[in-house]
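Lecture notes, continued. The same structure-token format from the folding unit now serves as the input rather than the output. Read the line below as a description of shape only.
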């Protein structure tokens, strides 16, 4: 689990650094994927499942939700 946590922290840090020139929809997608991956890995670790599988599923779900939320913000002009 230590390697999974380190990989997630690194991914979130790198994603945050690259968000300066992104549209709100793109930022929502990246942020949602990072948060979803972290949550998915944590839930999988607590429940005794594979951290990588949880991170992958959480990342896809989080990225999808973040994309939708970012698109709504972009249309509103935030």
């Amino acid at each position: 689990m230590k390697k999974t946590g380190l990989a997630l922290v690194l991914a979130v840090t790198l994603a945050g650094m690259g968000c300066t020139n992104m549209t709100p929809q793109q930022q929502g997608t990246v942020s949602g994927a990072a948060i979803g991956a972290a949550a998915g890995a944590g839930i999988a670790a607590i429940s005794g499942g594979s951290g990588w599988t949880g991170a992958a599923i959480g990342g896809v779900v989080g990225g999808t939700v973040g994309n939708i939320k970012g698109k709504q913000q972009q249309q509103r002009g935030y």
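Point for the exam: The CA atoms of residues 29 and 67 lie 4 Å apart.
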